[in-house]
Amino acid sequence: MSGPPERVTIKDVAARAGVSKGAVSLAFNHKPGVSDATRERIFAVARELGWAPSATARSLSSQRVDIVGLALCRPARLLGIEPFYMDFISGIESVLADRSCSLLLRLVRDVDEEIALYRNWWRGRMIAGAVLVDFRQNDPRVPSLQAIGLPAVAVGHPSLTGSFPAVWTDDATAVGEAVRYLAALGHRRIARVGGPAELGHSAIRAEAFRSTVRGLGLEEGRQIATGFDEKEGARATRSLLLAADRPTAIVYDNDIMAVAGAGVAAEMGLVVPDDLSLLAWDDSQLCRITHPTLSAMSHDVHRFGAEVARVLFEVIEGTHTGPHQVPTPTLTPRGSTAPAPASHGRPA
Amino acid sequence: MSGPPERVTIKDVAARAGVSKGAVSLAFNHKPGVSDATRERIFAVARELGWAPSATARSLSSQRVDIVGLALCRPARLLGIEPFYMDFISGIESVLADRSCSLLLRLVRDVDEEIALYRNWWRGRMIAGAVLVDFRQNDPRVPSLQAIGLPAVAVGHPSLTGSFPAVWTDDATAVGEAVRYLAALGHRRIARVGGPAELGHSAIRAEAFRSTVRGLGLEEGRQIATGFDEKEGARATRSLLLAADRPTAIVYDNDIMAVAGAGVAAEMGLVVPDDLSLLAWDDSQLCRITHPTLSAMSHDVHRFGAEVARVLFEVIEGTHTGPHQVPTPTLTPRGSTAPAPASHGRPA
DNA sequence: AGTCGGATGTGAACCGGTAAAGCTCCGGTT
DNA sequence: AACCGGAGCTTTACCGGTTCACATCCGACT
User: Fold this and answer.
1) Angle (CA) A119 A123 A128, round 5°
2) How many CB atoms lie within 10 A of CB B314?
C-alpha cells in the first residue's frame, strides 16, 4: 500500500515553497540571503511537510558533526551501580543539549578496544571529539589518540593526560582535608580503601594520604587497593578491621565501597560512628540512603561533567586555552564520622 | 606547519592502489567484483594510509545508519543512583557492538522533549531506530512516534505500547509470587511501596498486588505510590510503619527505595527481618551491599537489554515477528525476609 | 573462427545537504 | 546615461561514499 517510506527532502520543500534548495538551506541555517517573507514561507512549508534537514547529508557537506563520543571501560557490573557516571553524563548532556549535540556512548572491555573504537569513530567522521576518562599512569591512549589527531578532553590530573587538555579536581588537597578532619576528631589510626593501583588518581590520592598522615604525625595508615566494587570494598574493610591494631577511621575512594564497608562493620558488631568512622568519596544519593548516613567528600559531579563538555567544545573549535580545574571536593559530615573512641583517643 | 587536518578519503586510497573508487568500495564491503589480489592491495593501502570509510558519506548514500537512539526521561539525580539503566544499557550495547552499531544517548526532562528529540533524530536520519522506556497509560509517544514512522521497540507491557513491538517482563506474575512468598512466611499484613501512578507498570503491579492479596484472604494491604527515589521511599516507609496496624512486610518497586526503607526501619528501632520483612525489586548490587542483604525479585537486566536490542534490529530490518516476553523476575531470598513476628503471625 | 559468459573493473549518477560564485533587480550616485 | 552596490535568489560544484549500467579481457564451447 504505502510502499517504502518516501522520506521528504530539501528538494521537496524547495519545490513546494517555490524556491531553490539553496534558499531553503540559507533559511534553515539562519543565514542572510533570504527575505523574512520567504524565510517564513519556507518554514511554513517545512512544518507542513514535516521536514528536518538530514544530519547525515549536512555533516557530509559541511564537514562538521554534532556528536561527541564517550567510551566507558569499566566492567558493566560496576558501572551499573556506581552513580558517578550517570551523573557525570547528565552534566555533559546539559551542555551538549544547548548546542543540539548528542552523546555517543559505548561500553568497552579494555583500553585496546577503546582505542580501536575511538579510531574508528574519528576516522569514520562519526564524532567531532571525545571525552576520555579513567586515566592510568602512562596511559596508552595518550600516544595512540594523539597520533590520529582526535580532539578530546581528558578527565584527570594533567600529569597523566599528556597533551590532552585536562579537567580535574584537586584530589590531593581533598585527601589532605579528609585526613585532617579525621585527625581533628582524634583519630590517630586511619586507613584508606583505594581504587585500582593502575588508575592515575588512585596513585595521587595514595601519595597525598601518605604524606598528610606523616605530616600530622599520625600512625602510618594502611592503604588497600581494590577494584572499586562492593565485594572488594567489603573484603578490604574486613581485612582492616580484623587486624590487631584496627583503624578507628577509614577513608574510601568511592561511595559504593563505603556502603559495603558499613555493612561489614555492622556484621562484625561495630557501631558506626561510635566504634568506627567511615568517610566516602564521590558523594551521591547512596550516602544518604544508608543508616547511618555516610559522611563524604562531596563533589558536584554534574557540574564537573558540564565543565568537561564546555572544554571539549573549546577543543573542537580550537579556542581552547589553559587547563581547567574544577572545585576541590569538600567535606560533608554526616552520621558516619564522630570523635575517635576513648580507648584509641588522642593522647593528652 | 601542518595546516588543516587533510583527512584521507576513498579517493586517495583508490589512487594509491591504482584502482577506481568503486573498486575500493566493493573491496571494503566484501562484495564480489574485485580479485583477491586487488582486494589485498586495497586493504594494504588503506592500512598504510590509515583510512576508514566515512560513516557520514556511507550512510548518506546507502540510506542506512548504524546508530540507535535512547532517551531517558527520569530526573538525572535518580538515574544516577538507579543501577537499572546502566545495566540495561550495557545489555543493549552487548548486542549493538556485534553489528558495530552505536548508541546515541540523551537525557530529557519530559515526554514532550523526548518526542521532539526522537522526531528530530528520525527526520534528521540520525538514528535507525529507538528504544522507548517508561511507558505510561495512554502514553503520548505512541501516537506521535507512530505517526512519524519511527522504528522502535517498546519496553513495557503490550497493553501500554500501542503497535510498537513490546519487550516485557510479566510483572503481574512476579508480584503474585512475591506476595505468596511473604504470605507463606506467615505475613498477613503486607504493604507495597510502588512507583509513580502514571507509569504503566506501576498500575499493573498495583492491580496484581491487590488481587493476589485478596485471593489469599490477607488483610487489604496499603499501597503507596512514590516518585521512585530514596526520599519518597523513606517517607512512604515511615508513613506505613507509623500507622496503628503497621505491616509486617513491605514490597518495594525498586531497590533504592528498599534500601531507604531499611534505613527508616533501623532509625525507628525495628529489626529487619525480625520485626519487619523487606522485599526489593530490580535486584542489583545495591541489594548485596546493605546489612542485612535485601531479598529481591531478581531480574537479568543485562539480558533484558540485550533482548531489547535484538528485537529492535528485527524491527529495523522489518523481520519482526511477535511480542517478546523475557523471563519473569524470580524471588531471591536474602537477609531481609523472615517469618512474620509471632504477635502478627498467622492465626491457627 | 565466432560467440558466449563470467570475472574484474570503470564511470557516472546519485544520496541530501552546504558553500561560494553568479545573476537580477532596483534605488541611488556621479 | 552609465555605474555601483547590495539584497535576494539561483546555479553549480562539491562532500565521500554506494550502486548500477556498461566496458574489457580471457578462456571455453560450438
Assistant:
1) 90
2) 16
B311 by Cβ neighbours in 10 Å (0-12 / 13-18 / 19+) ranks as: buried
- Shortest Cα distance, chain A CAs vs residue B214, angstroms: 32
Which residues 254-283 of A are in CB contact (within 8 Å) with B?
Answer: 256, 259-260, 262-264, 266-267
Q: Name the pairing type of β-strands B295-298 and B330-332.
A: antiparallel
CA B14, B19, B23, B29 dihedral sign is negative
Residue A217 C-alpha cell reads as 604525625
Q: What is the pLDDT of residues B192-250, one digit of tens each?
A: 999 998 899 999 999 999 999 999 999 999 999 998 888 899 999 999 999 999 999 99
**Cβ-Cβ contacts under 8 Å for B160 (sequence gap 6 or more):** B135, B136, B137, B139, B154, B166, B200, B201
Among the partner-chain residues A53, A105, A119, the one whose CB lies closest to the CB of B103 is A105
Q: State the DSSP H helix or E strand holding residue B215, giving kind and residue range, or none if neither.
A: helix B200-215
A202 neighbors A193 (Cβ within 8 angstroms): no
The per-residue pLDDT for A84 is 85
> Whole-angstrom Cα distance, residue B262 to residue A65?
48
pLDDT at A7: 87
The residue type found at B78 is L
| Inter-chain touch A105–B107, beta carbons under 8 Å | no
Query: Could you tell me which of A176, A253, A254 has the C-alpha nearest to residue A216?
Result: A176
Looking at the complex, does the CB of residue A149 fall below 8 Å from at least one CB of chain B? yes
Would residue B100 be called left, alpha or beta, if left means φ above 0 and alpha means ψ between -120 and 50 degrees? left
| Beta carbons of B17 and B42 less than 8 angstroms apart | yes
Query: Is pLDDT of B101 > 70?
Result: yes
Interhelix angle B10-17/B21-28, rounded to 10 degrees, is: 100
Q: What is the mean pLDDT of chain A?
A: 92
Q: Using the predicted structure, report yes or no on whether residue A295 has a pLDDT greater than 90.
A: yes
Query: With helix as H, strand as E and coil as C, how does A235-274 read?
Result: HHHHHHHHCCCCCCEEEECCHHHHHHHHHHHHHCCCCCCC
pLDDT tens-digit series, residues B276-312: 999 999 888 889 888 889 999 998 999 999 999 999 9
Q: pTM (2 decimals)? A: 0.92
Start-end of H helices in chain A: 10-17, 21-28, 36-49, 55-62, 76-81, 83-98, 111-123, 141-147, 171-184, 200-215, 230-242, 255-267, 286-289, 301-317
Q: Can you give the pLDDT at residue B282? A: 87
**Would you say A70 and A155 are in contact if contact means Cβ atoms under 8 Å apart?**
no
